[in-house]
């Protein structure tokens, strides 16, 4: 029985590491989107006010990049523990208690909310794909369906990171328990 449990936790740690590596790579890509968004915004302003030129697709692309930055970067923000939260009590908790709070939050808030977002958004996104929804603006980007797909990617990546967080925090509790046994507490 102990061997099966050990194998399970080794596999869980393996998948947690894979999820973290995936989100780190996604974050690196998103950071390039941020730079591109800033440069594109600068170009739009220069063209508009310097040369009286403008293209709807270029302006919409900033909106697409903005959506990608926030929706695809959210899981990495969770991974590095930078999400906004009420930290009045949490920061005073022991590592063990913080791990318990994080497990509870992941299992009963993060995961159910993201499953709900995925379920509720699925038909909305699929409808956009069925009609290949495009911008309503003349000269706009003909790929609104791709923008809407970010909603599903957001909930999926957040769910994956939630799983990684639960594994990580259970491991923290397990290590805490093992160190207590070794210390004779």
From TrEMBL:
Its main location: membrane. GO terms for molecular function: transmembrane transporter activity. The chain crosses the membrane at residues 26-51, 63-80, 101-125, 145-167. It is a multi-pass membrane protein. Keywords: Cell inner membrane, Cell membrane, Membrane, Transmembrane, Transmembrane helix, Transport. It is found in: Cell inner membrane. Pfam families: DctQ. Residues 37-170 form the Tripartite ATP-independent periplasmic transporters DctQ component domain. InterPro entries: DctQ, TRAP_DctQ. GO terms for cellular component: plasma membrane. PANTHER family: 2,3-DIKETO-L-GULONATE TRAP TRANSPORTER SMALL PERMEASE PROTEIN YIAM, SLL1102 PROTEIN. Part of the tripartite ATP-independent periplasmic (TRAP) transport system. Belongs to the TRAP transporter small permease family. The complex comprises the extracytoplasmic solute receptor protein and the two transmembrane proteins. This is TRAP transporter small permease protein.
